[in-house]
Design a protein that fits this description.
This protein has 334 residues and is of the alpha+beta class. It has seven helices and 22 strands. A hairpin with a 2-residue loop joins strand 6 and strand 7 (138-141). The two termini are 20 Å apart. Bound molecules: 2,5-dihydroxybenzoic acid (GTQ).
């Protein structure tokens, strides 16, 4: 017998009679609750995310970010970031149940002071401007399309000696760290610790767009197109299959002009940032008409399909490595 996973009723909540209600009240006073009354909210036949499909037009976010730039300095703010909050779970600084995302601005001449925390971070650069980020004494320049990691518990500061604003998308595993109640954070004694190492002498932390763009175009010439993803690559450590961040997976995909993708869903809710091109993605019942730098999120187990008008490149990230490590991850290609 074959049937779709999660189809049918798993457990219906039993009726609440006056006798049961009275019993539940006495249980409540002893910090207990009847499982049969909560079972259906606890063990779901398939993911029922409180997260919603959501879309942020860069053209609407950027002016607000620039306004923040004249209201507060990067130093006073610690990090001048507009947090992207999933509309289904407002107030908790989460774009999905497991991930944080925000858009950060460092104005010319500014410094975001050095600190470290248990949460791992990724930066996906939207506007360059000659900024840098440093990780434990090594600096890298930030150029549009670069995917840069800040590993857990490494000191990092961001600076912009250039003459244009530097803007990037931050992705952090803060909700995962906090779910485990495992958060630690501290300021560095120095605002900008000295550069003590060359970028070449430390493990790679900037996956530059010039190299990943070339790789994705090479894949599109030599590889087979995936019906849902187009040409999609996952960032990994050199000579390894491991994700650069243990909890967060990052991807780059090329959708050739005219691409019409099939429906796909996975248990890893995914944040997308449009790097190049124009097109649209159907996410659940929504259609997001996207262009460069727009950001959207696909909740867990929600169908998504992509269409591209011209050659388009999408960056994305999700908690897939965390789910895979725990043997939770599932996907379905229609
Ligand atoms: O750049 O270190 O968006 O600590 C949120 C928390 C960025 C950062 C964020 C952070 C950072």
């Amino acid at each position: 017998m074959t049937r779709e996973a999660g189809s049918g009723d798993f457990h219906a909540r039993p009726e609440i009679t006056p006798e049961r209600q009275e019993f539940y009240k006495r249980l409540d006073r002893k910090n207990t609750t009847p499982l049969w009354d909560v079972f259906s909210n606890l063990v779901m036949p398939q993911p029922q995310s409180a997260c919603q499909p959501a879309f942020w037009k860069y053209g609407e976010i950027r002016p607000l970010l620039m306004e923040a730039g004249s209201l507060i300095t990067a130093r006073e703010a610690e990090r001048r970031v507009l947090v992207l909050e999933n509309p289904g779970i407002r107030g908790v600084s989460q774009i999905t149940q497991s991930l944080y995302a925000g858009v950060q601005l460092v104005m010319p001449g500014e410094i975001a002071p050095s600190h470290r925390h248990v949460a791992s971070a990724l930066r996906f650069v939207i506007e360059g401007g000659g900024a840098y980020t440093s990780v434990d004494g090594a600096r890298t320049e930030m150029h549009p399309g670069d995917f840069i990691i800040t590993p857990s518990w490494t000191f990092h500061d961001h600076g912009n000696p250039g003459d244009a604003p530097a803007i990037w998308l931050d992705g952090l595993d803060v909700p995962i760290v906090n779910m485990f109640d495992a958060s630690f954070a501290e300021r560095c004694a120095e605002v900008t610790p000295p550069v003590t190492k060359s970028e070449e002498d430390v493990p790679i932390f900037n996956y530059t767009y010039s190299s990943s763009r070339e790789a994705i175009h090479q894949l599109s010439r030599n590889g087979a197109v995936h019906p849902a993803h187009g040409f999609r690559m996952q960032y990994r450590k050199p000579s390894s299959v491991e994700s650069p961040i243990p909890t967060i997976g990052a991807f780059l995909q090329l959708l050739p002009a005219g691409f019409r993708g099939t429906d796909y869903r996975g248990t890893d809710a995914t944040v997308y940032c449009v790097t190049e091109g124009r097109g649209r993605s159907r996410v659940g019942g929504n259609t997001f008409e996207w262009g460069e730098h727009d950001i959207f999120v696909v909740p867990s187990w929600c169908f998504v399909s992509h269409e591209a008008d011209n050659d388009a490149v999408l960056f994305s990230f999700s908690d897939r490595p965390a789910q895979q490590a725990l043997k939770l991850w599932r996907e379905e290609v229609r």
